[in-house]
Design a protein that fits this description.
Number of helices: 10
Helix content: 40-55%
Radius of gyration: 19 Å
Strand order of the largest sheet: 7-6-5-8-9
CATH class of the largest domain: Alpha Beta
Oligomer: single chain
Largest sheet: 5 strands, mixed
Order of helices and strands: HEEEHEHEEEHHHHEHHEH
CATH topology of the largest domain: Nucleotidyltransferase, domain 5
Number of domains: 2
Strand content: 5-15%
Number of strands: 9
Distance between the termini: 16 Å
Length: about 290
């Protein structure tokens, strides 16, 4: 819960119920929202939701996020507006994180790479989030970095998030060592010099670098921003990412002195990003304050 200045008033984390069916996921989301509204010290006037894409903004519908089949074809905005009796705004999770980061930078054009199990890109042009003609812009995790790579739940092969997502790094370490460890432990081992752990992050950083080369050549941004849970280990990813930018991007665009790579210090930028979507409607006067 956030005030009109975008400052957090209360943070509630609850199990999503993903894997137990659409109605369980929705009921848990609704119960959490109702609890916050009931406990709010001030009136709650709007609701913001950030979700993995793709999303239909016209219909307020989550379409087919590959890793979350329980969310497929869910008309979330209509249901929440009815059950909460408040205007509801739906945004792609990486775009929401980019909206929130606008508060932290004066940059006009940047790309926010959200690193988690999936990977998304919030593309900001002239301080506006770019959605594309159908609203599907930013599905960076499904850029193929290896046409002969492993199949992805989206139906493609060699998708970036299957190589550089947080779960992919854990899986790569498992294949190298036959040990199943959480990402935080693999990072500790990498910092201690473990060669398999270092290789797991190096290969993820290399794939991110190839994707970043394409982004930089296409959009010529002022900044690349790494955010989300995977960005907590940016120091293990950036060396390979930077190497590929400097050696493979169009020369002027890729040089380090012309392109900053920043790390968002927020470990969970998605919640504040969702709030930012509702706050924008308030700032524009679409929703009156009580």
């Amino acid at each position: 819960m956030y005030n009109p200045l975008g400052q957090p008033l209360q943070i509630l984390q609850t199990p999503s119920g993903v894997g137990k069916g659409a109605e369980v996921v929705y009921s848990r989301l609704l119960e959490a929202a109702q609890h916050l509204i009931e406990q709010a010290p001030v009136p709650v006037v709007a609701v913001g939701v950030a979700s993995p894409g793709p999303i239909s903004f016209e219909r307020g519908q989550i379409l087919t996020p590959p890793h979350f089949p329980d969310l497929h074809n869910m008309y979330l905005v209509e249901r929440l507006q009815r059950d909460l009796d408040r205007p509801t705004y739906l945004e792609h999770d990486s775009a929401a994180a980019a909206r929130r980061f606008l508060r932290s930078t004066s940059a006009e054009n940047f790309i926010y790479i959200l690193l988690q199990q999936g990977i998304g890109a919030g593309i900001v042009i002239k301080r506006q989030v770019y959605r594309g003609h159908h609203g599907f812009a930013g599905e960076l995790g499904h850029m193929s970095v290896n046409m002969d790579g492993e199949p992805c739940p989206c139906g493609n092969r060699g998708c970036l998030e299957n190589v550089a997502g947080t779960t992919a790094i854990e899986f790569r370490y498992l294949r190298l060592t036959k040990q199943s460890l959480p990402l935080s432990t693999i990072a500790e081992l990498a910092h201690a010099g473990n060669p398999q752990a270092l290789l797991s992050f190096e290969q993820a950083g290399r794939a991110l670098g190839w994707a970043a080369v394409n982004l930089v050549n296409l959009f010529d941004p002022e900044l690349l921003v790494l955010g989300g849970p995977g960005a907590a280990y940016a120091d293990l990813l950036i060396p390979s990412l930077r190497h590929h930018l400097n050696t493979h991007a169009y020369p002027y665009l890729g040089w380090g002195e012309h392109l900053q790579i920043l790390v968002d210090p927020l470990l969970n930028p998605i919640g504040p990003g969702a709030a930012e979507c509702a706050l924008e409607a308030i700032y524009l006067g679409d929703i009156p304050l009580p």
